[in-house]
Batch of 3 targets.
Target 1
Amino acid sequence: MANEKGATCGLEWRLTVEGGSSSELLPESGLLYRVWLGIFGLILGLKLKVWKFFENAWRVGVDDPRRVIHCFKVGISLTVVSLFYYVRPLYDGVGGTAMWAVMTVVVIYEYTVGATVYKALNRGIATLLAGCLAVGVHSLANHSGDKAEPIVVGFSVFLLASVATFSRFIPSVKTQFDYGAMIFILTFSLVTVSGYRVDKLVDMAHQRFSTIAIGSSLCLLVSMLVFPVWAGDDLHLVITRNMEKLANSLDGCVAEYFNNSGSNEEPCQKSLGYICVLNSKAAEESLANFARWEPAHGHFGFRYPWQQYLKIGTTMRYCACCVEALNASFNSEIKVPECMKKYLSNACMRLTSHSTNVLKELAESTKAMRKSSNTVILIEEMNSAIEDLHNALKSLPHQVMQPPPPSPIEATEKKKLLLLEVMPLVTAASLLIEIASRIEEIVDEVDELAGLVDFRPAMDKKPNQNQPTNKTHPEDQGQQDAMQTLQRI
Amino acid sequence: MANEKGATCGLEWRLTVEGGSSSELLPESGLLYRVWLGIFGLILGLKLKVWKFFENAWRVGVDDPRRVIHCFKVGISLTVVSLFYYVRPLYDGVGGTAMWAVMTVVVIYEYTVGATVYKALNRGIATLLAGCLAVGVHSLANHSGDKAEPIVVGFSVFLLASVATFSRFIPSVKTQFDYGAMIFILTFSLVTVSGYRVDKLVDMAHQRFSTIAIGSSLCLLVSMLVFPVWAGDDLHLVITRNMEKLANSLDGCVAEYFNNSGSNEEPCQKSLGYICVLNSKAAEESLANFARWEPAHGHFGFRYPWQQYLKIGTTMRYCACCVEALNASFNSEIKVPECMKKYLSNACMRLTSHSTNVLKELAESTKAMRKSSNTVILIEEMNSAIEDLHNALKSLPHQVMQPPPPSPIEATEKKKLLLLEVMPLVTAASLLIEIASRIEEIVDEVDELAGLVDFRPAMDKKPNQNQPTNKTHPEDQGQQDAMQTLQRI
């Protein structure tokens, strides 16, 4: 708003000058005014930017208050580790290398427990390995004479740094030990090279390792015990939420198309949820990657099959692809005649509703980690809805192609036009059927997960209220209306 | 292979025992044999794993030899920086804190120039900022008395660490200053907390900064001057390659469907290229993110609009979504009658060929950063191919629905069946049209890029050889054949 105001001001000023009756009279004050306006605009623009930044920051905190807690956790951990400096006995105990503990806390502390464990273990093991190796290289260098020593050390640094750097490109290393490889190079170079100067090499390696251990254990304790954020929980949530988003967006865009309720903004936002599903690959992979470093917690035991979540995610993305294509066919330039739309609308909406029911049931049962007794029935209903749509499509040409012909030529013309006009609708129907079959693939992947981790047995519960069994009557009515309309053409 | 051998061995042994004539005679040697086989299998399995790992590593190097060069670059930089330790005058010059230079090289050195610059600048600026702030806090703490000093220091660490950690969640900070925020916390904590012990605080801050500067400049020089890997170049390449992949996969899957050449494996692999396009979002974003830190190089000037590449990438992914749906409709369970397929095959393949021509031309002109004189013509041809497909679809019901009827009932039955049978084909045609319109969106985005960075003017060159202008004749022949077949039904 401030920006707009500035722009308006600038425009007004220019208009005044272009008006030009007093342009000779006010050259200097015009320039001053211009400069003043420029500065004013700049300040307002800056204010707006700062304001937007803080608004963004506020939203980040409100969207997920765990982030705010995480920040306090980091602050407290750092302050605690600083105690090693404040309290003299502790400071003397670790021999002045408490710096490493501070550094470890800053570098290791990540948002999720999994990421913290990943970094802590990688850092610990890599430091240990590199330390041992460096001590070995150092003693080798010691025995090879004063002149050869820097050469041996230099060559070993060159060789190991190159090899470790290369290993970071190998996918299996990259996903699990990328940080470890970096710390390996770091520790090895530091210890080997310092070894050339510092005599008490083993002491130094030992101190470095013990301070890192202190920092790491503090991080791990705080991250696991104080309001822990588990990557596994988040992955579980992302997957089930994506199921719901997929269901809602499918529901939304089909309803929007067939009901033509373009006035309401809300369903439009809702029906774009599939884009989140399409874009969540990277987030899912990183969460799954960290989740496997987490100890057993909640429902998730040791060696929980997190990779299966990625498979579910992939099938969902394929499904979302079809929703995207469906959206495109709904927005096609070819205008489908209203009567046609009305004719197929029931079958399409029934199939959509059954498909989303399956997805919602799936989301619910996955969320509760419970087998669902309804899924089989819901899938059967979905399949019968596919059959209904097939039948509606079968009878479509019969209805469309045989209007009472006033003259043979006109009738032929009408037929030609109609199939092209109905193309987006046929495409949409075909994509809805494809989406249903892809939903079955999601069901299969979830079933595999249920088998792998022993979902709890199903509870007896009443069928989903969204089920349109009670809606059949009015829908049939609609179909009859549509057929009557078609016959009237 | 070794694993297979092991498995066979195990199987053979079990068969021998199950044969059972000498089972009483060899219980102990059987057990020993079993243990031996187990160990043998384990060793073979391990050997296989190691072999596979090295095979993977070899492929990583062969796929992109720049990675191997990068490793040598890191090795050499580290060895050079170690000189600060080896050579005494240099060592004395930086007062024993050469360690920071080694650490900087290890931590900052990334594969692409952009990532290295990003880390170096973030590290440098964050260190400077945090150092100044820490000195300020230290002097404030000094003036507040002996008892209050640790409290002031502790509280400032807590406050700044929390705020900086929170800032890392804000998207705009995360993409550009994530590393800087971490280094800020690190330096601030280290300097503030050490300030409590080390008296020569300013000296320490100065040394830390100068060693970091030495390490950073070395990294930047080596990464920019010795076989540089520019993130911008890579992004440019990824985008143009994805255009080619999209074109090839579209070509491949349409040709595979209509030509029914299932025997050849190669096109199958080729036609899956669109999956790469679907999955390249994260890579593109990270490259674009680093590319903007790079100085002007090659064709890419300062403030090059890398964000536009992301927009092109997004339109390509939407196009790839439709190719995925197209693939699904080709693999539909509903068997489209051969004659129908043949009838629409020409129009579909013509449209595909024109669409891929546009994509290939686009890839070529983007690669050369040159305006293309052909694009307009190719798009016109694509649009006329869309018209042709529309016409073919218009005449389809006319052809299909009016076979010479032997009896009225049978004719009606035939009609009903045919529309459902032809549904996947109609869907495919509709998706091909949608793909063409999405390709036009890609063209628009590339045009915008061309306008933003002033692509060089077009060269006069002969039209793309892939253009099917000369193929019209045999295709028309095919269409005639198909129509004759249809009339014969």
Note: Residues 408-453 of chain A form the longest helix (46 residues).
Target 2
Amino acid sequence: MSASQIQMDPALPPRESWADINDDCPIFQSLGVLSTRSAFLVLREAFYGATRFDQFAQRADISEPVAAARLKELTEAGLLEKHPYREPGQRTRNEYVLTDKGADLLPTLLALFRWGERWVFGDGIRADIAHASCGASVDAVVTCEHGHRVPPGELRFRRNPARAS
Amino acid sequence: MSASQIQMDPALPPRESWADINDDCPIFQSLGVLSTRSAFLVLREAFYGATRFDQFAQRADISEPVAAARLKELTEAGLLEKHPYREPGQRTRNEYVLTDKGADLLPTLLALFRWGERWVFGDGIRADIAHASCGASVDAVVTCEHGHRVPPGELRFRRNPARAS
């Protein structure tokens, strides 16, 4: 077994015999919600402070129809929610704000940020994301509930002990 | 500012004025490599122990042409590498093994796994990923280089201090 593979609990049946292999997989289900690259870009801009339609289209560098489609889908999926606002002399418009469900994608986006930085960019990127109070850069770190940083060779795939069947 | 937004360093120019906003973004670049859901599924199965063509197609529940296309793309992008093997009486075939670049996507896949578990599945999933030596479940946790767990409201987007310009 390669050190990058996750150990499969020997009590599990062979993976070929698993039913509903994708329907039961949370990675597959997550990607059903995040089905396009532009969905990730709209969420990126929500984390970076965009709330208004024009900001999303311009900052994600996507067309207005694409921005409208993504904002609609992400709102329907519960990752963003609409809040009405009105500027003097204008009609009422909607702002789009991350819900708890959308905000919980931060570790995913940060992991993609750092992976791209390490493996796609050769000479470093212009931007960084840091811990405001101490100034150190942040990353999404594989950590267990006991607080250990877990290297890939020490991961085990098992039945969920919190689920009866 | 909402607590889920990342603080933008006030020294930065307004985001609308940034040139090359996507070309300079490591999230955008990462998603260029991971352009399809089936690419994530093939990588998932590589982490779960698949090495052979038939295993990838069957365990990711994708067609053989899709499996062949994804394995070729992921190999060309340097996430998997081919190792020849030969079984008695058979022709030489290739196994596909995660490279360091591919293996470094583990935090991304784990973050998607936990997000899907928390937000897409109502009543818990069958599987879990744990720290083999202590038995506690793992997650991808936003952590700074000083070892602090960083809540979303304490993140700051800034210029990369390690890059001259």
Note: The longest strand of chain B covers residues 80-86.
Target 3
Amino acid sequence: MNAKERIPQVGVVVPFEANEAAESLKPLVELVRADMQAVNAIILDKAVSDVDLIPKLAHHLIDSGGKRLRPMLTIAAAKLCGYQGTGHVKLAASVEFMHTATLLHDDVVDESDFRRGKESARLVWGNQASVLVGDFLLGQAFRMMVDVGSLQALKILSDAAAIIAEGEVMQLAAAKNTATTEDDYLAIIDSKTAALFSAAAEVGAAISSRPQQERAALKSYGRNLGIAFQLIDDALDYSGDSARMGKSVGDDFREGKITLPVILCFRRGTEEERAFWTRTLADGEIRDDDLDNAIRLMKRHNAIEATIERARHYGDIARDALAIFGANPAARALTDVIGFCISRAN
Amino acid sequence: MNAKERIPQVGVVVPFEANEAAESLKPLVELVRADMQAVNAIILDKAVSDVDLIPKLAHHLIDSGGKRLRPMLTIAAAKLCGYQGTGHVKLAASVEFMHTATLLHDDVVDESDFRRGKESARLVWGNQASVLVGDFLLGQAFRMMVDVGSLQALKILSDAAAIIAEGEVMQLAAAKNTATTEDDYLAIIDSKTAALFSAAAEVGAAISSRPQQERAALKSYGRNLGIAFQLIDDALDYSGDSARMGKSVGDDFREGKITLPVILCFRRGTEEERAFWTRTLADGEIRDDDLDNAIRLMKRHNAIEATIERARHYGDIARDALAIFGANPAARALTDVIGFCISRAN
């Protein structure tokens, strides 16, 4: 019995709309096209199991048109460092599996009903299967890393796995706490989001045996890009344009998530406004027009613009981190990704 | 802020009662005593995080008096193979963390309220925290393995991680299905339980650079011991003595779990009896005296005795697997563990 035969081979990545954001991702997509085909083939191959439920559930998410931004970072970083082997492909697939496992567990933790514009796996197959298939994909990710055989890559990615989980627990502990500071929040996203971006870029250098400063540069690039990416994601959740990103506006609001736009609004607001945030996010008493109200407060306090400004700051750090590589197609493509992440909010 | 200072250092293993089962574990406990102190120290150290919730939740389970049987197997296998380094200690701690992570996720999946005689972590801190702290411990396990630096050990344990998750999904898919065959069931416990026993024993040989046949012998020993262990666990769930093992009688029954005693009863029973198993386990309609009824049916069909007999069969295979090592204290201690596992049911 070979489960592979029963799975339609539809693991293609949904193309971007031809907008500004997509334009700035184009150089990266072009740069990594051939290798990403190999990555996608491995992803399909390793999501297979004789246990039917595993490929079904895994493919529900894998086929749903994620950008595969993180594995593209690994491939591009390896190219930037002149890597000549084939290990970067398996490492990139491992990075995507780690990300997919995190999404499966996140949806259980957040009790999310939608992901990438369709029903979440936990809604279709239940929390139990989502937890276990997440565990399976994480196991497969480690198997692939071990196959590559670089202890340095293994160290980077296993560190990331623990740090991501730590960040998720931090976020859970901070949930509904409107007193969360901007620093607290940065620590959370540094762990839960930036750690994987950072590791994805750093492993590309680590397997290339390049000087330590190039590895450190890519680590810093990935980390700051990841922070910028998450901040823009937070901003999009309160902006009308986010529907086209496959995310519905107000998800974070309904889940009582304390993100930077909320933190800024809370601090910049009046007593009465703070009472509003406490009632809706901390106490979870949400009425029909509360999301509109929240968006109105965001506008009043320039919270979205300020969040995007903060994201630009981290984007700038990421850009400067790459400067040591000079001008070359891979460095340019990675630099353009920063623009892509920021311009998603425009 | 050092979370370690806030944790009482109570990670001691609860001593066994002086019964026959405990006696047969004694040689192993004696053999590994010094190394297990180091393992326990690492377990306490690596369950620490600045995120308060992580050590709190992790210690709830770590301090609750598990036997630490799996890490003891790793230490004993390394000793049996004459290993002289220190890597076995970290690998043993990794094995225990993998096990702990699995228990945390299992309790979420099974919606269990009790574990080792006290409230389950998910009941105290919620499903969300249990999923995430499980992920954290798995991440820490991989970090420790990477520290040891043996790619062979990494391969064995990452394979096990994926296979365990696969077994759990298999069990989920088979849940409440009274048509599960004995073969189906063996495939499930081979993955979900025996894979970690097997890996725990095999890594001890793998880091010792011993001939392939010794590694294969320990792998086979661990696997068959694990199957025997699980079968006895299944039998205990329908036997009055299981209270003293920190497990309440009837847990599997109430959760609708299809285990070997049930499979045998179902196949050996009348139409009317099969209807009983379908109503209680498949449909989940459990009335007050149904557990007593179930135990009565187990007795009528000798299902518990037959399950223990099956366990003895796998125990015999485990015993013969060790024969190539000849007579020495480590081999004897590992052989006695088989007796321990089986005699738990007496």
Note: The longest strand of chain B covers residues 114-115.
